[in-house]
Amino acid sequence: MPCNPIILRYWRRTHSLLPIQNVKQATLAQTSRTNREREGLGLRCAALDFCGYFLHFRLFFWKKIHCVTKQNILIDFFKFKSGGSSHLVMDVPHHGYRATAKSRARTAPPAGGNPLLFEDTSSPSPPMARHGYYMSGAAGAGAGGGGDGGTLFRDPVASAAMMYGSSLAFQGKDMVNKEISRFVSMNKLKYFFAVDTKYVLKKLLLLLFPYAHQDWEVRYHRDTPLTPRHDVNAPDLYIPSMAFLTYILLTGMALGMQRRFSPEVLGLCASTALVWVIIEVVALMLGLYVLSVHSDLSTFDLLAFSGYKYVGMIFAMLGGLMFGRNGYFLSLAWASCALMYFIVRSLRMKILSSLSSDSMGPGASARPQLRLYITMATATFQPIIIYWLTSHLVR
Amino acid sequence: MAFTLYSLIQAAILCVNAVAVLHEERFLSKVGWGADQGIGGFGDEPGIKSQLLNLVRSVRTVMRVPLIIVNSVCIVLLLLFG
Q1: Cβ of A362 and B3 within 8 Å?
Q2: Are B66 and B17 in contact (CB under 8 A)?
Q3: Which of A97, A105, A275, B21 is the most exposed, fewest CB within 10 Å of its CB?
Q4: B1 — contact with chain A (CB < 8 Å)?
Q5: Tens digit of pLDDT per residue, chain A (395 long)?
Q6: Chain B residues with CB inside 8 Å of A275's CB?
Q7: Does the entry feature the keyword rRNA processing, yes or no (chain B) (predicted)?
Q8: B2 neighbourhood in chain A, CB within 8 Å
Q9: Which of A268, A274, A358 lies closest to B44 in CB terms?
Q10: Residue A291 and residue B48: Cβ atoms within 8 Å?
Q11: Is A271 on the interface with B (CB under 8 A)?
């Protein structure tokens, strides 16, 4: 019997020294390979295992050293140590590549764009980090291929192909961006996603308990509205989209709890909710046009205000899932009242306050009422939709 | 009521078709919704009726050719795939 624990493990297994559970196992053990065959197999497995241990220890030490010393010294050290073992060399430049990209992203200066949008109020803001990663991704590949010579890929053709591929990806990305920006203004969209944690928390609290908030005006900064990061009253599209996804997941969970789940239902539920949002936004835009309300509400603003009802939906569903039917109706009532108050207060600023800028014509007396009606109609539509989309999920 | 995105597209096409078949002379003028009857007062505030008539007229003008294309595509698809 071997003394080495690794080889011992395999020796034991092949020689069936494990306790035999039943007669079936005993007969199987006897009719399978001969002991000699098993021994050979076991030794081969043990050899592989030992190699694995050896490499694992080397990787382990490599990782420890990696945190302390610089990149190039490390690569030289391991080139010397391993003497060209391909497995490790493949690993090292991979780590080096990633680390270079990260360090470059952190030190990259903000490349143009609105400084107000990309001010860093939390850990690296997503647009900048992504930009930096893409730029340094291509640069890192180039530097890796040029500087280390053979260690990135043994094959210069492969490294050239990789650089060509990354430049192709760049061009593809540019083309896609150009096409998209013909329909949707990216800057405007970026404004709606410039959020941070503090804003999200305050806004969620505001959506569920708006009664304590005093100041509902959207603050401006030299004619442009402030980003959501700096102003809690600004609409954003992050919360609605995340709430929409959470709603879909919760629907799946609720249906699963009632044993009515199937993957098609998820897709159906998602498209139903999306269609209702689209209908509401189109109806609102039509209403605002017909009543000739010249407010600064763009399509995205309306989309944002429509999407805030998902937060109320999630709240109602959670109440229903945790506390049954009564809990559902209670949280539905609470969420509806809060949401109605929120919508009325927010839209009143935008729709009703544009009265003062219009001249008083003969038909002006009908205006305030109609605008009030449209605000109230929007507000009352929310609880109806919340009830419609969630009642079948709570038994 | 389970909506799919396809049903949304269908509803949109049907609505736009409905607006496009309202003929100017034969129907709208008879009812009092003609193009000339809407532009009544020239104040800053066009009324609801004039806004609606404006909308109908612009939809009819803009969507005439795209609707031909979209309707043909729909007809072919429905004939092929039912």
Answers
A1: no
A2: no
A3: B21
A4: yes
A5: 666 776 677 677 766 655 545 555 555 555 555 666 666 666 666 666 666 666 665 655 555 555 544 555 555 555 555 554 444 444 444 444 444 444 443 433 344 445 556 555 555 444 444 444 444 444 444 444 444 445 556 788 888 999 999 999 888 888 888 887 777 777 778 888 888 899 999 999 999 998 888 888 777 777 777 777 788 888 889 999 999 999 999 999 999 988 888 888 888 989 999 999 999 999 999 988 888 777 778 888 899 999 999 999 999 999 998 888 899 999 999 999 999 999 998 888 877 766 554 545 444 545 678 888 888 999 999 999 999 888 887 76
A6: 3-5, 7-8
A7: no
A8: 268, 272
A9: A358
A10: yes
A11: yes
DSSP secondary structure of A292-317: T------HHHHHHHHHTHHHHHHHHH
Predicted TM-score (pTM) of the model is 0.61
Distance CA A144, CA A151 (A): 8
Whole-number Å distance between alpha carbons of A184 and A178: 10
ipTM of the complex: 0.86
User: Between A272, A274, A361, which is nearest B43 by CB?
Assistant: A361
Across chain B, the runs of DSSP E, i.e. the strands, are: none
| Amino acid occupying residue A55 | L
Minimal CA separation from A275 to chain B, in Å: 7
Q: Does B10 touch chain A (CB under 8 A)?
A: no
Which H helix or E strand runs over A224?
A: strand A224-225
CB A198 within 8 A of CB A232: no
- The region, left, alpha or beta by phi > 0 then psi within -120 to 50, assigned to residue B32 is left
How far is it, in rounded angstroms, from Cα A40 to Cα A37? 5
Using a CB-CB distance cutoff of 8 angstroms, which residues of chain B are in contact with residue A268?
2, 4
Q: Which of A280, A275, A190, A172 is nearest to A238 (CA)?
A: A190
Q: From residue A335, how far is each of A153, A272, A379 by CA, in Å?
A: 58, 21, 12
A371 touches chain B (CB under 8 A): no
Note whether B81 contacts A: Cβ–Cβ < 8 A: no
Query: Which residue among A275, A363, A388 places its CB closest to the CB of B47?
Result: A363
